[in-house]
Amino acid sequence: MATQVKLKAERRTAIGRSAVRKLKATGAVPAVIYGARDEPEPLQVSRRDIGAMLSHASGENILVELEIAGDPNRLALVQEVQHSPVGGDVLHIDFHAISMDEMIEADVPLDPTGIANGVKNFGGLLEQSLRSLSIECLPRDLPDVIAVDVSGLNIGDAIHVRDIVLPSGVTTRMPPDLTAISVLAPTVEEEPVAGAAEAPTTPEVIKEKKEDPDAAGSGGGSKEQKK
């Protein structure tokens, strides 16, 4: 199941670039929570706590129980984490508020397990066309990954969405005929045929033979002598 952690957060009143710079100087990260029929609310969380949360997560989907002073704890899904292109520091984090008794949508990675028979014994190539699966479930049923056993695949075989065994409580609306994983035949390079004649580098030019004018004249002279 997806990682679920507790995280302390505080309300954030000051917004804007200047306020964000001051916030980061204190070791905090700006955040926002939205959804569940509530207006978006600016928050701030500890950079150290965010780092620990991300480092211990076993998948891309993280359920967070936000502890906000003066409010009941709020359940949320980490929707987006913005990182600095230089150094990779967390710049901002978005939380999507959810309810334990309401269905949620998420993209869950597909994890091929085993070695396909067509790859192991016949040199085939495993191709994963679908990296993740869009699913629906209750928060308590949200998986970290969906394992797909590929060991029985031979060359030319494929696993489609309809063939994927989903965890209990999980459904998908993706097209059932969509190919997720397949085994392709190995590519073979054609070898040149030994002794094959090479094409000439320059074309042969055949010149038209010109008629000899002296030969034509001599024929006419013989007729004059007979007169």
Which helices and strands appear, and what pairs or packs with what?
Elements: E1 3-11, H1 17-25, E2 28-35, E3 38-46, H2 47-56, E4 62-68, E5 74-83, E6 90-97, E7 104-113, H3 117-120, E8 125-128, E9 132-137, E10 146-149, E11 158-160, E12 171-172, E13 179-184, H4 213-225
Parallel strand pairs: 1-4, 2-6, 7-10
Antiparallel strand pairs: 1-3, 2-3, 4-5, 5-6, 7-9, 8-13, 9-12, 11-13
Backbone shape = elongated
Give the tally of β-strands.
Answer: 13
Unreliable stretches (pLDDT < 50, length at least 5) are 218-227
The third-level CATH topology of the largest domain is Ribosomal Protein L25, Chain P
- As a percent range, the share of helical residues equals 10-25%
Count of DSSP H/I helices: 4
Query: Can you tell me the CATH class of the largest domain?
Result: Mainly Beta
Q: Could you tell me the radius of gyration in angstroms?
A: 37 Å
Mean pLDDT: 84
Order of helices and strands: EHEEHEEEEHEEEEEEH
- Structural class comes to alpha+beta
Give structural notes.
With 227 residues, the protein is an alpha+beta fold. The protein has helices at 17-25, 47-56, 117-120, 213-225, and strands at residues 3-11, 28-35, 38-46, 62-68, 74-83, 90-97, 104-113, 125-128, 132-137, 146-149, 158-160, 171-172, 179-184. It has 2 domains: 3-97, Ribosomal Protein L25, Chain P, CATH 2.40.240.10; 104-184, RNA Polymerase Alpha Subunit, Chain A, domain 2 (Beta Complex). A hairpin with a 2-residue loop joins strand 2 (28-35) and strand 3.
